[in-house]
Design goal:
Belongs to the sigma-70 factor family. ECF subfamily. By secondary structure, the chain is mostly helical. The chain has helices at 4-29, 32-53, 59-78, 83-91, 113-124, 131-142, 147-154, 158-174, 184-206, 217-233, 238-251, 254-257, 277-292, 299-312, 321-334, 338-352, 354-366, 375-386, 390-403, 407-419.
Length: 436
């Protein structure tokens, strides 16, 4: 009789070891797409064998051995007994060796594990790929998520995700991208791409742009895991620590950001006793490592420093808003964007009053920034409300409701409209998002 714990073991091992398995197979085959394919074949075989025969003593080694044998079979199909096939066949050991018991040492080198994962991350996030393709490929081969899971996370059809992954593999092959850890000089120039992909994954998880969940914990959690891995693999990169600090400090507030029915809880209403203090300590430690490099904080580090201001404040009123404004000033000079300016406007309104923040927001409106996002009208409506300009505030909040694609955040905007004596049209919805 099949043992259901065998299937559970497959899932657990794959979740923990998938990046290392695919990375090791990619190193030996030199073919990114083939490595991912044969790893999936090994996974499928484990799902059949482990429940029936029991979990092997070396589960990861078992998967590697099966994956390697599938790679040998693939090379034999491509070109009968060519030189590469012969090399791989010799490495696979005797035909009678049990998977995961013998013949795995040449493939499973503990001293190369970190290099294999790092190579996989840099390959999946190569600049030759479009942003959406980098995200999908990273979640698939580094994160170990299925196409269905990725599709659910980003609310797109599974076929779309599969197409992106397929095109990404073909693009990497066509460009001749080697599956290796880039040189130190090249790595410094490309690490930004890896950081950006992890940041994008976390941002979508932390504040979902659409759907009926405020936070997608699995997506945010996967990004946080990848950030932790990367910070260990490139300890000399301050921005890797800066990104990890930002993600830890942001995730620390997750327990208080939603109510018992999943509703959004705004910052000023959150029970700070529910914030994850261990995550705050980890985030502050990572920020300290980024600062210790002595090169000045980068964009992620500055955002982490802002998050730290919130994390250590007893309340919204007691937050060091002056320091937050200064940090946003620095961020705006380093990485200018309308979203940074909008956040700076909010901080300025808390430090100097709503009129000061509205001046910045009105300038963004005049520039035609963020026209499809609920963020700008949402903030403008809040500032107008604080200034007592009720009719204008209602118009802005209605606009924000129309643009907001997330049901939980839309409910917050509708609540603000109701507080102004205006019943919202609950039929509307769209593609932006007001962040809590």
């Amino acid at each position: 009789m099949a043992d259901p714990t065998g299937r559970e073991a497959v899932g657990a091992v794959w979740r923990i070891e998938s990046a290392r398995i695919v990375g090791a197979l990619a190193r030996y085959t030199g073919d990114f797409a083939l490595a991912e394919d044969v790893a999936q074949e090994a996974l499928a075989e484990a799902l059949v064998n482990w429940p029936r025969e029991g979990v092997p003593g070396n589960p990861a080694g078992w998967l590697l051995t099966v994956g390697r044998r599938r790679a040998v079979d693939a090379f034999r199909r491509r070109a009968a007994l060519d030189e590469r096939c012969a090399v791989l066949a010799r490495e696979s050991g005797r035909d009678g060796a049990a998977p995961g018991e013998e013949g795995t040492d040449l493939l499973w080198d503990p001293d190369r594990i970190d290099d294999d994962v790092l190579a996989l991350m840099f390959t999946a996030c190569h600049p030759v790929l479009a942003r959406e393709a980098r995200v999908a490929l990273t979640l698939r081969v580094v994160g170990g998520l299925t196409s269905d899971q990725i599709a659910r996370a980003f609310l797109v059809p599974t076929a779309t995700v599969q197409a992106r992954i397929t095109r990404a593999k073909k693009s990497l092959a066509a460009a001749g991208v080697p599956i290796e850890v880039p040189s130190a000089a090249e790595r410094a120039g490309r690490v930004g791409s890896v950081l950006n992909v992890i940041y994008l994954i976390f941002t979508e998880g932390a504040s979902a742009s659409s759907g009926d969940q405020l936070i997608r914990f699995d997506l945010a959690g996967e990004a946080l895991r990848l950030a932790r891995v990367l910070s260990r693999l490139v300890p000399d990169q301050p921005e890797a620590h800066g990104l990890l600090a930002l993600l830890e400090l942001t995730a620390a507030r997750f327990p208080a950001r939603t109510g018992p029915r999943g509703e959004a809880v705004l910052l000023e209403q959150q029970d700070r006793a529910r914030w994850d203090q261990a995550a705050i300590r980890r985030g502050r430690a990572a920020l300290a490592r980024a600062q210790a490099a002595g090169r000045g904080l980068g964009g992620y580090g500055l955002q982490a420093a802002i998050a730290e201001c919130h994390a250590v404040a007893p309340s919204v009123a007691e937050t060091d808003w002056g320091r937050v404004v200064v940090l946003y000033d620095a961020l705006a000079r380093l990485a200018p964007s309308p979203v940074v300016e909008l956040n700076r406007a909010v901080a300025l309104s808390m430090d100097e009053g709503p009129a000061a923040g509205l001046e910045v927001v009105d300038r963004l409106v005049a520039e035609g920034a963020l026209v499809t996002s609920a963020l700008l009208p949402g903030v403008r409506g809040e500032l107008l409300t604080r200034l007592g300009r009720t009719e204008e505030a209602r118009a802005e909040l209605r606009r924000a409701v129309e643009l907001c694609g997330n049901a939980r955040e839309r409910a917050v905007l509708e609540g603000k409209l109701e507080a102004l004596g205006c019943a919202p049209d609950r039929r509307v919805g769209g593609g932006g998002g007001q962040r809590s």
